[in-house]
Amino acid sequence: GNSVTQMEGPVTLSEEAFLTINCTYTATGYPSLFWYVQYPGEGLQLLLKATKADDKGSNKGFEATYRKETTSFHLEKGSVQVSDSAVYFCALSGPGEDSNYQLIWGAGTKLIIKP
Amino acid sequence: NAGVTQTPKFQVLKTGQSMTLQCAQDMNHNSMYWYRQDPGMGLRLIYYSASEGTTDKGEVPNGYNVSRLNKREFSLRLESAAPSQTSVYFCASRRGQASNQPQHFGDGTRLSIL
């Protein structure tokens, strides 16, 4: 079945460092891919998405490219800020066994940015 | 811009008590979902409703029931709460079941069962 694997956290970086959070997936067909962010005490917010191979999603300085050849959707940001501290979830949407398009979630990666 | 609204935000129950978590969305979405989030476990789907009038079990449905009251509202009921149901519960909605559509989340209900 479909699955998503994210790098384990926490990931601790200094302000202005370069960020990569790895996400790989297993899926049949051509799923859509998403990154969500969860700030402390809040719900999940859509950060970016990509719906076909080689698409690049971007938002708030974050980017991720849908790589079908490596089944990956790594999240990157060139210069992180303390305000980026949050938990980041990778997810895919594709047909499941019942043909419904459920979101399959990674376990989440906690990001801590130190001033 | 209310989006997805969950009530209550916090609740403490005693073992064996019952309660209903409410969720409403104002985006005219067809599909709605209930998740629980536990430390180190990510999000786990409890129940979902692909469209008004239908509900289906997710990954962890035991101990829960749901009602899709109308297109806007989707409630989650704990009939006899157990300490293992202590968690943060999130409701989400989605325009439809198409692959490229994201889910939109409420702010969660933090539930403690003593």
Number of helices of chain B: 0
What's the SSE pattern of chain A?
A: EEEEEEEEEEEE
- Which class of secondary structure composition applies to the elements of chain A? mainly beta
Rg of chain B, Å, rounded: 13 Å
- Protein chain pair with the most extensive contact, residues per chain: A-B, 24 and 24 residues
DSSP summary, beta strand count of chain A: 12
Helix content of chain B: under 10%
The oligomeric state of the chains shown is: heterodimer
H/I helix tally of chain A: 0
Helix content of chain A: under 10%
The gross shape of chain A turns out to be: globular
Question: Averaged pLDDT of chain B, please?
Answer: 93
Specify the biggest β-sheet of chain A: 6 strands, mixed
User: What order do the helices and strands of chain B follow?
Assistant: EEEEEEEEEEE
Question: Could you say which overall geometry of chain B the principal axes of the C-alpha atoms support?
Answer: globular
Low-confidence stretches of chain A: none
User: What class do helices, strands and sheet pairing of chain B give?
Assistant: mainly beta
Whole-angstrom Rg of chain A: 14 Å
The stretches of 5 or more residues of chain B where confidence is low (pLDDT under 50) are none
- Mean pLDDT of chain A, rounded to whole units? 92
Keywords:
A: 115 residues; six-stranded mixed β-sheet; four-stranded antiparallel β-sheet; B: 114 residues; mainly beta; seven-stranded mixed β-sheet
Describe the structure.
- The complex is a heterodimer of chains A (115) and B (114).
- Helix content of chain A is 0%, strand content 53%.
- With 115 residues, chain A is an all-beta fold.
- Chain A has strands at 3-6, 11-14, 19-21, 23-26, 32-38, 44-50, 56-59, 62-65, 75-77, 86-95, 101-105, 109-114.
- In chain A, strands 2, 5, 6, 10, 11 and 12 form a six-stranded mixed beta sheet that branches. Chain A has a four-stranded antiparallel beta sheet with strand order 3-9-8-7, with no helix packed on it.
- Chain B is mainly beta and 114 residues long.
- Helix content of chain B is 0%, strand content 51%.
- Chain B is built from no helices and eleven strands.
- In chain B, strands 2, 4, 5, 6, 9, 10 and 11 form a seven-stranded mixed beta sheet that branches.
- In chain B, strand 5 (42-49) and strand 6 (56-57) form a beta hairpin.
- Chain B is globular, with a radius of gyration of 13 Å.
- The termini of chain B are far apart.
- The model of chain B has no long low-confidence stretch (mean pLDDT 93).
- The interface between A and B is medium-sized, with 24 and 24 residues.
